[in-house]
Write a structure and sequence with these properties.
It is a single chain. With 84 residues, this protein is an alpha+beta fold. The protein has one helix and two strands, in the order ββα. The chain has a two-stranded antiparallel ribbon with strand order 1-2. The longest helix is centred in the C-terminal third of the chain and has 15 residues, at 63-77. It is found in: Membrane. One of its GO terms (cellular component) is membrane. It is a single-pass membrane protein.
Length: 84
């Protein structure tokens, strides 16, 4: 099991346990505990679904976070009428 942003690599894990918010500056540095310039936090979507095509994290962000955002984008792109 992988827990971004703390687990930085995906490796051979096949479960992403998304619990923590992912906040980074635009240099790819984690700003945990402070809202980052780039952010993906499930709590931002407690009353609305996340949009399709979330902005990818800046260079330097851990592979686990990049994979998480790619997977959310893939899922929302393939669900008919997502966000309608």
């Amino acid at each position: 099991m992988n827990q971004p942003p703390w687990d930085t690599e995906v490796g051979d894990k096949y479960i992403i346990h998304y619990t923590y918010g992912c906040d980074y500056d635009m240099k790819g540095k984690l700003t945990y505990g402070k809202v980052g310039e780039w952010r993906f936090d499930k709590r931002s979507y407690d009353s609305i679904p996340p949009p399709r095509n979330l902005t990818m994290p800046p260079p330097g962000v851990s592979q686990s976070v990049v994979t998480l955002v790619k997977m959310v984008n893939e899922a929302t792109a393939n669900i008919p009428n997502w966000g309608v």
